[in-house]
Specification:
alpha/beta; 18 strands; 9-stranded mixed beta sheet
Amino acid sequence: MLTEDRKFMLEAMELARRGLGLASPNPTVGCVVVQGGSVIGRGFHEYKLMDHAEVRAIREAAGRVRGATVYITLEPCCHRGRTPPCTDLLIRSAVSRVVVSARDPNPLVNGRGIEQIRASGIQVDVGILRRRAERLIETFACHAATGRPLVVAKAGMTLDGRIGLRGHGQLPITSREAAEFTQGLRRELDALLVGVGTVLEDDPELTCRGPFPKGRGLVRVILDSRLRTPPSARLFADSSSPVVIYCAPDAGAAPRRRLERRGAEVVPVPRTRGGLSLDHALEDLGRRGILGLLVEGGSSVHWSFLSLGAVDKFHFILAPALIGGKTAVPVVGGRGFSDLTSALQFKIVRVRRAGSDVILEAYPSCSRSIISPWPRSGALPYSSRSSRLPLPRK
């Protein structure tokens, strides 16, 4: 039975992956209905279509569900929101067994869905391929537990850790395949953040491009304490993706009006010793339902997030080149850590090729990710004044 369970759960996970970029602000979920050793129904969740994976799979099974086994990557919801609880549907359908990979971390569910199904007399088995399933809900789990987005940093660099040369604008350091990888991250995550220095130096569009659809418009976030973002910046050319600019409370009224006329939402946040309060910005993004935030730099922005302990995952993209010299921009700027004892530690969990480049997927010791390889302390790595903001899976 274990071999069969693994086979069908892997199929459910492949379905769930089809919902990446389409399910947010809900989690990605896949489901298969099995009768007599054959799959008779398949489903995955897309937020715009409303129906959950279980509903779509049972509908496809077309009345042949009684006595079947249902494989679901995430615990069925047991509360009413945009749709009725999936637990009620499974119970009414008289399935004989439900196999769940991961519990739903949403405090509104978190074991209650499993308990309800078991209380009806249906067998429920939990935990097969759990770590793979938790990877699929990594952003949702972080937001459900903390009210803030999972922060994923990404940087393309030379072998000596340089991301460019001052005054030279955007340099094509990494390969086309690495650029495609970056677009994949932009599709899967809800928002993209850069500092105003990157806007002034590179004038990027900050858009999500590629062959696959994205359910929500990518929110472009700019850290700009003095509102130096030019109204003529290329990022304003795409009106389908919102632009949020965090500034200092004393930023000028005139530049604010100019940027708002271009469609930007300007949000004042307090200053801190290191610049703008990332704490307040992350809380605000969490309230907006941003599950995953991609931080693409620049150099000082990476330092701000890392020094605060506000990075949950980092993708280091290494190109086989060296720049050297004193004018090259390091991937992480700022003051830096004083010694190796205080330096932030990482664990590399995956190494892959992207054309001529190598991508290191690494988790810092401060990571709040549900799949972080670091031991969990039970406390948030950085301060949080807000209470948990559970986002109903509906």
